[in-house]
Sequence to fold (225 residues):
Amino acid sequence: MRRLLAATAAALSAAALIAFPGHATAAPSPLPDFDFSACPAPPANADPGTWRCEAFVSQGVLTIGDREIPLGEMRLTFSEGKVAGKYAQVFGELRHAPARIHGAFGASLQLKYGGYSDFQSNDERRGELDLYAALRHPLLPKECAVGTLADPLHSVVKDDPAVPFEVISQNPTTVKFGVVDSRLALPRTTGCGRLAPVADQLLGLPSPSGKNTFKQVTYVQFKPL
Fold:
């Protein structure tokens, strides 16, 4: 997230230059509640004073072909800083309540962490995250999912121009931005038993890269560790 922090600093400096007394400003965006309880502690050999936790609160939408699935709220935490002068990060937690899939007879989808993340953004992308989607329904086995922990979906998100970067608060530092993954590939379901063909047909799976989009509007708040 070093690019994000640099952009934040630049935006705050610009805001300080133009925020004269009496100057009208737009109403601030509504803020979610941020939860830092799942922030991972810095490694034992962390460089002192360099670590912070980032708490994400996102609203997501997954589009599979022509089917749009509102995902609702997703929460994610991770910590970042330096070890021996080099950038390092530690993943905390991904939380997502099951989201109802409209037109799927009461089935829902719940995103789970797939075991890999990289939030050090660069000129090519904002970050990367492995995940899988558990499918919930009384008739489906509990193992029914799109992707698995052993073979997860790999999402690479880029900045979404429709939701530009915005500084919401200077103290504590809070920002808002949008990201999109338009190259996400979705395989057939696994672990769904005899209902696998039905689940695949309802969701339009498999769906190759280029046919799907994963969009998020994200608020991030930073907390020094």
